[in-house]
Design goal:
The chain is α+β, with helices and mostly antiparallel strands. Helices cover 22% and strands 23% of the residues. Strands 1, 2, 3, 4, 5, 6 and 13 form a seven-stranded antiparallel sheet that branches. A two-stranded antiparallel ribbon has the order 7-8. A hairpin with a 5-residue loop joins strand 9 and strand 10. GO terms for molecular function: actin filament binding. Keywords: Nucleus.
């Protein structure tokens, strides 16, 4: 039987037209799954979805829907808002069915989600309730933490400080830290009058991945990383401490850095007050 000749292509060819060569792939790459297209598909599959809850690596990434919880013992607790009683609620989270770690926690109710907003370029944030009319988390000079104000001001500003172990401390305008406090009857509540960062002042924070990527995109457009508060700690064993007098404090170098930052803040406030006074005297 005669060999069958391959059919001739009927496509028209013009004089001087370059012939495109067919691209061949290395059989080994295709079989092993190491080809460029296969790697791109794998990277796309491994990347978290926009709505997935992730931990922020930088303070500037904390924005949008925010889940704040604390690794309390015997079960972790979350900071939520009770819309019925119009106040902050601190209650234990439900146990995970698959027995996952505390880092796997995600919000299960809308009341457990806060909405983080920030002024562009500022290091402070505002935390607004995700339910009801939207009230801001605030702290007065006595350390009383509430969520009953519809307008934002200095008492509604918080500075997130990302610690070495990925946890976050929140500093208010009075340079005090948000903490979990045990009140009468064994109930837990929020306070804002702590001078040091220990077990009670450390929180896990989760945000949605699309807002984390949004922060990265803003930094790329600006050509750098925004200045952000950070704290260098020598150890993270304070996670396993219990309630009571055993309070973890930051290192001596960190205290010096915080004192310098506080002094700079006070000098800036004094300068602004002086300028405003001079302007008022000028117009009198």
């Amino acid at each position: 039987m005669a060999d069958v000749k391959p059919s001739k292509s009927l496509r028209l060819k013009f004089k001087g037209e370059k012939v495109k060569k067919k691209r061949t792939r290395d059989d080994d790459e295709v079989e092993d799954g190491t080809g460029p297209s296969r790697r791109r598909r794998h990277d796309a599959q491994d990347a978290p979805s926009p709505a997935q809850w992730v931990h922020p690596d930088q303070a500037t990434e904390i924005r949008g829907p925010t889940f704040i919880f604390h690794p309390s013992d015997p079960s972790p607790i979350c900071v939520s808002f009770d819309g019925t009683r119009n106040r902050i609620a601190v209650h234990p989270l439900e146990k995970l069915e698959d027995g996952g770690s505390v880092l796997d926690r995600t919000p299960t109710e809308v009341s457990q989600v806060w909405v983080t907003t920030r002024v562009a370029g500022a290091g402070t944030i505002n935390l607004r309730t995700g339910t009801g009319e939207g009230k801001f988390l605030s702290c007065d000079k006595h350390g009383l933490v509430t969520a009953d104000r519809e307008a934002r001001g200095p008492q509604e500003e918080w500075t997130p400080v990302v610690l070495e172990d990925g946890m976050v401390a929140f500093m208010n305008v009075y340079e005090k830290y948000l903490s979990i406090d045990e009140v009468a009857g064994g109930q837990l509540a929020l306070r804002g009058d702590s001078d040091t960062v220990g077990f009670q002042e450390r929180f896990y924070v989760k945000i949605q991945n699309k807002y984390k990527q949004e922060a990265h995109e803003e930094e790329r457009k600006k050509g750098g990383v925004l200045d952000q508060p950070s704290m260098d700690e020598k150890g993270t064993n304070s996670i396993y401490q219990a309630w009571g007098a055993g309070r973890s404090v930051v290192s001596g170098d960190d205290k010096k850095e915080l004192k310098r930052a506080r002094k700079a803040g006070r000098l800036a406030e004094a300068l602004l007050d002086r300028r405003s006074k001079l302007k008022s005297d000028r117009f009198c």
